[in-house]
């Protein structure tokens, strides 16, 4: 196949397409539209009028919902505002300003966070904004490579934590094995200073095909007597509404006690009206059945991406069973070129490098494909463009 003539043909079509962000499409949001008409006739819950301030840790029934989603005991869960990313930023700010036991991170010359790559761009931007030094570590299909982590942690005292997206990881799609979870806990339990594993379980129940289960890190950490190591996060952003859902965090009892004064200075109480709406919604709609309706809408899009990629000769790619991304790996030095060619044809792709700390993919070879937000027809056109640009970039490379 000669891709240059197809490229010229596609250019004439002047398309405007976007495969950048992992967002639910409108038909997915429609699955939760009855949230808007849920009538609240009682306002007194947990001895608080939910229209008022209060219940900083969230409504008890909503914490049950968080526990069902995140797969850990309710005693760990707080239900917050509409975004888990905000909770992550608040917890990291607390570590920088106040710290846990060893004083504020900001008073140290260097604090480093391990960042499994390819990873989630917003974890990296958040860490960079807070002045944390990011160290990339490779993923091995079952989570981050424990040998690399062990050797870094043993030789560098500035390492104080690691970002993890343990289920259907963004964007590599992998789910951490029990051995990886145990290994992470063991390695970080032996550091000289207090560390934290940031367990961002954003895709905890987001399977669209049979998927490997994820073990509950809190019960494993409890057996190893180090629950304080883990700080979990999740939300209903890709379950109900991405802009008006509920964010959750999961903390040990002692972490809750030390974080509460900092957190209570930031928030007098979350939106408990939205919390009770979510509780009632999931009394009427079974959570896992609701997720299988999402899966039915998402699955054909992932199948279409696979069909286009299998129909050509270049690169390698993931075949996830859940989550929101397919990760395309090209020969070194081609990702930027492909993304720039795609932009000439009107297709926006996540900028090359965004899967890595400081936006630097050293081999320039990863492209994140986010197929959910557009319609199936748009996705078909977008994949035609992507495949064309992939082929053209490889052919240019072969000629040079
Ligand atoms: C790994 C991961 N964490 C967090 C988020 C954002 O979560 P929230 O909407 O709860 O802030 C996303 C969104 O794409 C994500 O992929």
Low-pLDDT residue intervals, each spanning 5 or more residues? none
CATH superfamily of the largest domain: Type I PLP-dependent aspartate aminotransferase-like (Major domain)
Average of pLDDT: 97
Count of all domains = 2
Spatially, the strands of the biggest sheet line up as: 4-10-9-8-7-5-6
What binds here, in terms of ligands, is:
pyridoxal-5'-phosphate
Percent of sequence in beta strands:
5-15%
Radius of gyration: 22 Å
Whole-Å distance between the termini? 18 Å
Instruction: Characterize the main sheet.
Output: 7 strands, mixed
| Number of DSSP-assigned strands | 14
Approximately how much helix is present in the residues? 40-55%
* Element-by-element helix/strand order: HEHEEHEHEHEHEHEHEEHHHEEHEEH
According to CATH, what is the class of the largest domain?
A: Alpha Beta
CATH topology of the largest domain: Aspartate Aminotransferase, domain 2
Principal-axes geometry comes out as globular
